[in-house]
Amino acid sequence: MAATAITLPTSFDQTKAINPWLIAITVTLATFMELLDTAIANVSLPHIAGGLATSYDESTWVLTSYLVANAVVLPLSAWLSRVFGRKNYYMGCVALFSVSSLMCGLAPSLGLLIFFRVLQGIAGGGLAPVEQAILVDTFPASKRAAAFALYSMAIVTAPAIGPPLGGWITDSFSWRWVFFINVPIGIISLILTSRLLSDPPEFKQEVEADRKAGRLKVDYLGILLIALGFACLEVVLDRGERLDWF
Predict the structure, then answer these.
(1) Domains and CATH numbers, the chain
(2) Closest Cα to residue 65, out of 128, 125, 155, 154?
(3) Under 8 Å CB-to-CB from 231, ≥6 apart: which residues?
(4) What pLDDT digit, counting tens, does each position of 120-135 carry?
(5) 165-180 tens-digit pLDDT
């Protein structure tokens, strides 16, 4: 056993005193929260439109704004996790997602709701890439398939139970609770993440080398072009048919 522990790659040093399956459950919990929110809000649009005195067509921006922000952040997540540190960036995304969920539930107008949905989409877009990197660093190659199977269960289950759960919540309580339910899940995820996760030594060394070589400098023009490109594409795909663009 001692020889095996010595020969483990440094990427897995953080898991020697922590059960790796606890880490897998932690990141899967955040995945479930993000995907559930995406599915659950869809069936709540008529109630949101009625509650905020807007048309159904206007309320669809609640979905579009989230998807656009999500698509913009997704390709930037790898770079952002290296700039801020993988754990810090991940916890920041979970915290922002939870706070913006709370604010979505408290929003008094459609404009503010859309604004907080954009923040929610920014946070949600950073979760999946970092979660997958965490699983790769946490599990050896022989166990990654099982870890990703657990992760995939959340990806399949959350969209399946989201619509019926959203319908029940909006009919029994209020559409605002489809956002409030994310808050306790986010708090639990933050607590577990702070206690269980840490950046692997190899990752820290790579980031430090990139920083010294100047490879982590901000490409403002590139970020702007990516944001505009993905935002326009998402708007076309989401609203193009409704607006008779194709």
Answers:
(1) 18-239 (1.20.1250.20)
(2) 125
(3) 68, 71, 72
(4) 999 998 898 899 889 9
(5) 988 998 889 899 999 9
